[in-house]
Amino acid sequence: MRLTGKLLKWSEDKCFGFIVPNGGGDHVFIHKSAFSNKKRTPQVNDILTFSIAKDKQGRYCADKATFAGEKPASHAEKHVNKFSIYLAVLFLGAILVALIFGYLPINLVLLYLGASTLCFVSYAHDKNKAKRGAWRTPESTLHLLALAGGWPGAAIAQQTLRHKSKKATFRFVFWLTVIINISALCWLTSLNQMDESTSLLKMLFS
């Protein structure tokens, strides 16, 4: 059954708010993920049409919410950016191959794998806290983890968990950390190869 109500409160930082149903009754909790239109930012006093569902804790909340004038979508399209996932998997595969052929030290590869795992878990934990309305993980922390080598895990988490995958400013900074990290890896690798070449030349002409 579809209900109609007005958005009474909304926290953009925590991505949730409360709806007061037409005709009265208890306020209904709504998370941003419940909106069919992901591009529009909810505003206080917006008129919404929604269904009632239960979250993982068994609490009632709004689901499949649409703004006034929009057609309800029973199956909201969730676009997955496969490029991010393919890039992350390709990169992890590439550093493993580089390890096998001796181009990268095992400690560096383990750093990437460990940081990626930690980053994925951090995204999952942050999404869970967002649903519960708990204190969120700072975006700066997620960016630092990505910069430290966890960006493959972050890229996979953003798409598979549908978390932090829409906010333009966050995505811009995230991809900036990816570029910086890969550039630093290439620079360090080139220095290592240069040192090996110098050592070989010294052996040949000594």
Automatic annotation (TrEMBL):
The keyword Iron-sulfur does not apply. PANTHER family: CALCIUM-REGULATED HEAT STABLE PROTEIN CRHSP-24-RELATED (PTHR12962), COLD SHOCK DOMAIN-CONTAINING PROTEIN CG9705 (PTHR12962:SF1). SMART domains: CSP. The keyword NADP does not apply. Keywords: Membrane, Phosphoprotein, Transmembrane, Transmembrane helix. It holds the Pfam family CSD. It comes from the Bacteria. InterPro entries: Ca-reg_mRNA-binding_domain, CSD, CSP_DNA-bd, DUF1294, NA-bd_OB-fold. The chain crosses the membrane at residues 83-103, 109-126, 172-190. This is Cold shock and DUF1294 domain-containing protein.
